[in-house]
Design a protein that fits this description.
- It is a single chain.
- The protein has 185 residues and is of the alpha+beta class.
- It contains 4 helices and 12 strands, in the order E-H-E-E-E-E-E-H-H-E-E-E-E-E-H-E.
- The strands form 5 sheets. The protein has a 4-stranded antiparallel beta sheet with strand order 4-11-1-12.
- The two termini are 15 Å apart.
- 33% of the residues are buried.
């Protein structure tokens, strides 16, 4: 199976999600109720202290290819990030971005500006071509990526492929459009 060493990351399209820790708990309760993940942290994650919420049988209902889910694998859980973070695909990621206003390619300037974004000096980016200003998530990205203080990392679920209805429900519960960032490690 090729589902090893991947991450499916769902990120709201906003730099500073208001009340992000409370919303993270709300999303977790919803996922536990759907039986998508287990309610207690265990060592089934990949980063930091490896603590994550393990995959549960209901996960089969929210993906297109349930057989590709990492049941029985040491890394299989959901990690919830509640600090400002940049979520991008890792392999062959093209740092390309466009301005929604003037449609020019501004990737280099935008990705350079993350040095200001990361310590929260600003949430916004200003197009160097036309001066259009918006939350950095409002710009156009060739491949989905996310910039937020909230993120949901499903470890090794990538080849199982989330159903669109699940992503829609997720966005509805966050009350925001979401980016679905696909990471192969």
């Amino acid at each position: 199976m090729s589902s090893m060493n991947s991450q499916s990351i769902i990120v709201p399209q906003i730099s500073g999600f208001p009340g992000h820790e409370a919303r993270a708990r709300l999303i977790l309760r919803w996922l536990v109720k759907l039986n998508v993940v287990e309610p207690e942290l265990t060592t089934c994650g990949r980063t930091y202290n490896k603590m994550a919420y393990a995959i549960a049988p209901g996960a089969r209902k929210v993906v297109e290819n349930p057989d590709a889910l990492p049941f029985g694998k040491p890394v299989n859980g959901l990690e919830i990030v509640t600090k400002r973070c940049i979520f991008t695909p890792l392999k062959d990621f093209a740092e390309e971005a466009g301005c929604p206003e003037c449609r020019k390619e501004i990737g280099e300037a935008l990705f350079d500006s993350l040095e200001e974004w990361m310590p929260a000096h600003t949430d916004n980016f200003i197009c160097p071509e036309c001066g259009h200003e918006d939350d950095i998530n409002g710009f156009l990205f060739l491949e989905p990526c996310g910039f937020s203080n909230l993120g949901f990392i499903f470890n090794d679920w990538l080849d199982a492929s989330f159903k669109q209805s699940f992503l829609d429900d997720f966005a509805e519960r966050l009350d925001r459009p979401v980016s679905f960032v696909k990471v192969r490690l």
